[in-house]
Write a structure and sequence with these properties.
The protein is 38% helix and 19% strand. It is of the alpha+beta class and 636 residues long. It has 4 domains: 216 residues, Histidine kinase-like ATPase, C-terminal domain (Heat Shock Protein 90), CATH 3.30.565; 136 residues, 2-Layer Sandwich (Ribosomal Protein S5, domain 2); 93 residues, Rossmann fold, CATH 3.40.50.11260; 134 residues, Up-down Bundle (Four Helix Bundle (Hemerythrin (Met), subunit A)), CATH 1.20.120.790. It has a 9-stranded mixed sheet with strand order 1-6-5-4-7-3-2-8-9, covered by helices on one side. A 6-stranded mixed sheet has the order 16-15-18-17-20-19. The longest helix is centred in the middle third of the chain and has 24 residues. It is elongated, with a radius of gyration of 34 Å. The N and C termini lie far apart (102 Å). The relative contact order is 0.06.
């Protein structure tokens, strides 16, 4: 249908209206990024054109130079951004400009609308796209002509309020897209040269097509990743990083690498100083820009980086890939996969160097990026490097912030120790209070502390570090542990039990088993407890209580674990209980204490579903003890 001269009205989709509303009403300080967004769209359009051209597609106005032109009319407050890129057909204008294609933009809306995040603070980190033009424009007119010779030129206009109009252009225009912006009064400075120049230099300096204001080229275009390291200043690296990441902070690390054989490529990679604030969002939004001989083939290619290194930003450029390679077949290209694995090795090697030579810097890296980095447990090819890089807090550390490597752990191990011990818990204090740890303290054996649910997945997946197996404290073999020398002499608090009492103790344990019924498989004497009266343990090598909880949360079926209750003989409560038992084996007090010990152990490991019985019993104990207290103190 031709509607030359006639215009048709369309309404914006609901999500576009929402975005426009946010952009128009809440943003002043970061409004300059609208220019970055328009120039980046122009640059994409030029990239797409070059791609078609390399594929041999027939192209309208083939002799036009590939460039971006900025024009301004200070008097009438009009700014124009024009490119000679791929252009748009009528259908494309409707599909691309009427709706929101990009997932990041939707996330942005959600974030601002739902969490009331300050849009001003976060907008710079997002590519919010074309609509940001309405932060400065009261009316915007797009004239566009597709590279496809059969398509007519189209005009789109809107005031960004609720609808837009589209018509077919009567006059002829050249291939590409011109965006004319009638500026709001308070945005008039965007029709001034100094402001435009400053904004382009700040946000768009590394666009790989020339950007002109009049006859003057504004951007310095440099594929700095292809220059020798020695010729690039720190400032240039920083500037390029900012351009690439929209991050205002300096990167933590810059990795610039040139490889010539067996495959040629250049990589310029950055590790951001801060993890992206919105972790869940960056997951979708990662990747390295892939160039072939300085030509951008794909923005944010996800196959150049494994997910666990997705915090890395940067570009990769190779001479050895064909220019017309399609994005779909990249993954099957052997040269490409070799480059990708070399990029991973480069990053891991850099991190290993950092861990060795810049401990403090490495800790910063770990603090910011370990949440993602830990996912590397599934990279079996780089298993050795990964295991050298992971860090844990441990019983030897002086506080919860100190980190150790597995190499450090092993270097401190007892010479007879064959296993690396670990224990999970919500935080350091609660692990330190865990009765299971007592024997490890007594023997002076170091234990890794795991606060993050993924930590147990890591060790169960990597299985070994060097020749040492990982072993949960909960299922460690006590016979082996007892062979280790005590780290310090314990003063015995209790006399050995007499032969007779040993027998009574053993039948007390049977009584306790009777009371707990099939909630436990056994009640036995503990060799691991030093101070506490009782704890629950699992049979050897079963999954830990912490892991069970995680699996339950993930809706995984877990067989209920058969638990064993262990009772410490050398404990005041146990000794008193034994006295009671000897006097009356069926005393109700034994039942109450047994129940209480069992439920407290469950509580401690976070597995007590219903605390009301425990609380009731506890209150009864308090009441009773208050009476005894008064009696002992002669208080009436
Ligand atoms: P994004 O660029 O992230 O996809 P935008 O809202 O900025 O989001 O743009 C939407 C789409 O409109 C682009 O993907 C592109 O297809 C099209 N577009 C925008 N500007 C241009 C342009 N200058 N030339 C050709 N197409 C464009």
């Amino acid at each position: 249908m031709s509607d030359k001269g006639h215009s048709t009205k369309y309404e914006f989709k609901a999500e576009v209206k929402k975005l426009l509303d946010i952009l128009v009403h809440s943003l002043y300080t970061s409004r300059e990024i609208f220019l970055r967004e328009l120039i980046s769209n122009s640059s994409d359009a030029l990239d797409k054109l070059r791609f078609e051209s390399n594929r041999g597609t027939e192209i309208r106005d083939n002799d036009l130079p590939m460039e971006i032109k900025i024009e301004f009319d200070e008097k009438n407050k009009i700014l124009t951004v024009a490119d000679t890129g791929i252009g748009m057909t009528r259908d494309e204008v409707i599909a691309n400009i009427g709706t929101i294609a990009k997932s990041g933009t939707e996330e942005f809306i959600k974030l601002v609308a739902e969490t009331k995040a300050d849009a001003n603070n976060i907008i710079g980190k997002f590519g919010v796209g074309f609509y940001s033009v309405f932060m400065v424009g009261k009316e915007v007119i797009i004239q566009t002509c597709s590279f496809n010779k059969n398509e007519p030129a189209i005009e789109w206009r809107s005031d960004g309020l609720g609808d837009y109009e589209i018509s077919e252009l009567e006059e002829k225009i050249k291939r590409g897209t011109r965006i004319q912006i009638h500026l709001k009064d308070d945005a008039a400075e965007y029709a001034e040269k100094w402001k435009l120049e400053q904004t382009i230099k700040k946000h768009s300096n590394f666009i790989s097509f020339p950007i002109y204001i009049g006859k003057e080229k504004i951007n310095t275009i440099a594929a700095i990743w292809r220059e020798p390291k020695s010729s690039i200043t720190k400032e240039q690296y920083k500037e390029f990083y900012k351009f690439l990441s929209f991050d205002n902070e300096e990167p933590l690390d810059t990795i610039h690498k040139t490889v010539d054989a067996p495959i040629q490529f250049n990589a310029l990679l950055f590790i951001p100083a801060k993890s992206y604030e919105f972790f869940w969002m960056d997951r979708e939004n990662y990747g390295l820009d892939l160039y072939v001989r300085r030509v951008l083939i794909q923005h944010k290619n996800k196959d150049l980086l494994p997910e666990y290194l997705s915090f890395v930003k940067g570009v990769v450029d190779s001479e050895d890939l064909p220019l017309n390679i399609s994005r779909e077949t990249l993954q099957e290209n052997v040269v490409f996969t070799k480059i990708a694995s070399s990029v991973t090795t480069t990053i891991l090697t850099h991190l290993l160097d950092k861990a060795k030579n810049d401990k403090e810097g490495f800790e910063k890296f770990w603090k910011e990026h370990s949440r993602i980095f830990k996912l590397g447990y599934s990279d079996f090819i780089n298993h050795d490097k990964y295991t050298e890089l992971i860090r844990f807090n441990s019983s030897t550390c002086k506080d919860k912030n100190e980190l150790i490597s597995l190499a450090e752990y092993v270097s401190r191990m007892d010479e007879d120790q064959k296993e690396i011990f670990y224990l999970s818990g919500p935080n350091r204090d609660s692990i330190l209070d865990d009765p299971h740890l007592e024997i490890f303290k007594k023997k002076g054996l170091e234990v890794l502390f795991m606060y993050d649910p993924i930590d147990e997945f890591i060790v169960s997946s990597i299985r070994k570090y060097k020749e040492y197996d990982f072993k949960s404290v909960l299922s460690a073999d006590l016979k082996k542990l007892e062979k280790f020398k005590d780290s310090h002499e314990e003063t015995k608090k209790f006399d050995e039990l007499s032969r007779d009492d040993e027998k009574h103790f053993s039948s007390l344990l049977s009584k306790m088993k009777l009371i707990l019924g099939n909630r436990v498989v056994d009640v036995r004497e503990s060799k691991r407890l030093v101070d506490s009266a009782a704890c629950l343990v699992s049979e050897n090598d079963e999954i830990s209580a912490a892991m069970q909880k995680i699996m339950k949360m993930a809706n995984q079926n877990v067989d209920e674990q058969k638990r064993i209750m262990e009772v410490n003989q050398d404990n005041a409560l146990t000794r008193n209980l034994l006295k009671v038992y000897k006097t009356n084996a069926d005393d109700e007090y034994i039942k109450q204490v047994t129940e209480q010990l069992y439920e407290t152990s469950l509580l401690q490991e976070g597995n007590l579903d219903d605390p009301h019985a425990l609380v009731r019993r506890l209150n009864q104990f308090l009441e009773d003890s208050s009476e005894w207290y008064c009696k002992v103190k002669n208080i009436s």
